[in-house]
Design brief:
With 239 residues, the chain is mainly beta. It has 2 domains: 103 residues, Sandwich (Immunoglobulin-like), CATH 2.60.40.2550; 102 residues, Immunoglobulin-like (Sandwich), CATH 2.60.40.3880. The protein is built from 1 helix and 14 strands, in the order H-E-E-E-E-E-E-E-E-E-E-E-E-E-E. The strands form 3 sheets. Strands 9, 10, 11, 12, 13 and 14 form a 6-stranded antiparallel sheet that branches.
């Protein structure tokens, strides 16, 4: 009977270990690559945010997490997504809906976390601006021009609303000639009311003028913090 020496057995075991390791895929310590394509820079406040992110990894991707938030309210995340990834390169491209009632105007951030099949993790975050392009809503609540025929005042009361905050509201008086050309009446005929930033409020004024026969327009304006202007007007005639 033939016996194997201890040295021979050890050599065979070592060879078995080497062959077994060759059959296994080597784990990578390289972290996955993440590129945020969108959002970038300034985007419009239209109730959605377009998101596009590319991922790559030498051994394979596993999953990604995406968050959107506003820096003015840290911790207030208004969008999250967790999604599985495939292969060594993948792409996420979709439109995130901003929940109603959430004010996202100003500086926002996108947070992205990617994990590959080996457990390596990459986190990337970038800031972007959401611009307010929606003007304030202005509503004339009451308008009274009954006394102008006798040289009296015209009275107006109004309300305004804007999610981003109104910084100014005012009333302008205009007159029109027979050709339809408008001229603003200035000096004390222009009443304005500066307001600390607020999302809603009311205003009102009474305007005196040396009325002459013709058509007039009373224009109510409100401007928000982003410079958008909302307005509403009433026309009246002096006989």
């Amino acid at each position: 009977m033939k016996f194997f020496s201890i040295q021979s057995v050890l050599s065979l075991f070592a060879l078995f270990v080497v062959l077994s390791s060759c059959d296994k895929k080597q784990e990578s310590v390289t972290k996955p690559q993440v590129t945020i394509v969108s959002p970038k820079g300034a985007v419009s406040a239209d109730g959605t945010v377009a998101i596009e992110i590319s991922f790559s990894d030498d051994n394979g991707l596993q999953e990604a997490e995406v968050r959107l938030g506003n820096l003015s309210t840290p911790g207030d995340v208004y969008h999250t997504l967790q999604k599985g990834l495939n292969g060594t390169s993948d792409n996420l491209k979709y439109t995130a809906t901003i929940p109603q009632g959430v004010n996202v105007v100003g500086t926002n951030y996108i947070y992205v976390k990617c994990i590959d099949v080996d457990g390596n993790e990459t986190v990337k975050d970038e800031d972007f601006e959401i611009e307010d392009q929606t003007p304030p809503t202005v509503t004339i609540v009451n308008f009274d021009d009954n006394s102008v025929q006798n040289g009296g005042q015209v009275h107006v009361y109004y309300s305004f609303q804007d999610e981003g905050g109104v910084e100014f509201s005012g009333v302008e008086l205009w007159t029109s000639d027979a050709s339809g050309n408008s001229t603003q009446l200035v000096n004390d005929n222009y009443k304005q009311n500066y307001i600390p930033s607020q999302t809603s409020g009311q205003g009102g004024t009474s305007i005196s003028h040396n009325w002459s026969p013709g058509w007039y327009k009373l224009l109510v304006k409100a401007r928000d913090e982003s410079g958008n202007v909302g307005e509403e007007f009433r026309t009246f005639q002096v006989l």
